[in-house]
Amino acid sequence: GLSALPSAAIYSLLACAYALIYGLTGRIILSFGEFAALGALAAVVGAALLVSITASTPASGLVAAFVVAILAAALHGFAMGRFVLRPLDHAFDPQGQGRQAPLRQAPGQQVLIATIGLAIALSEYLRLAQGAGLRWLAPVFNEPFALARAGSFVVTATPLGLAVAAAGFTVTLGLVLLIARSAYGRQWRAVSDDARTAALFGVDARAVHDKALILACAASGMAGVIVTAVYGGMGFAGGFSLGLK
Length: 245
Fold this sequence. Notes:
Blueprint: H1 5-25, H2 32-53, H3 58-90, H4 108-130, E1 145-150, E2 153-157, H5 159-181, H6 183-193, H7 195-200, H8 205-231, H9 238-244
Antiparallel strand pairs: 1-2
Helix pairs in contact: 1-5, 1-8, 2-3, 2-4, 2-8, 2-9, 3-4, 3-8, 5-6, 5-8, 6-8
């Protein structure tokens, strides 16, 4: 059970990413697995940069991996929204009604095909950036310790596994509370319920959608860091199976 906590944290972050967008627009984006792979590569790069710039501890290297991966995934998510999804929506808003006009969303099939193409492009992008081989993150805090004993049966866990699982579940809970309790969450729910009526009350549907994409991709990037930290690394093509699950 305890050994499955990191995996549960990974899938909870990816589930949040899918839910943030599907709950808002009713559209499925099939490239979040590739954003997790992007986060995995960025985590290795971030830890390596910290080691090359200054003396570091395993804890600081892990923090740098999380920060770089989340920023890289969020930036690429913003680019996906602006250059892939926004043009599709704009095609259904030919009058250019302004920022607060409700989005004339492209049909789900078009979004699905576009994000599948983006997933393939991201996978090739990662292959060109890192090569076909894996880029490994050095194992840290992975010495198992006993939590409970019953005769010869010993329940063990690793500090790293517990830490990254706690971080993943904390972010997942934070996203749930963000939608439930914050001003942005009220705007998200308003656009999800009725984008046209929300626009009449001054809610900027485009900004709500852009922020949701950034949050979703950042959560996917964090999932990739957990994969790398716990399992050592993830290849450029690993995002497909992760996202499919």
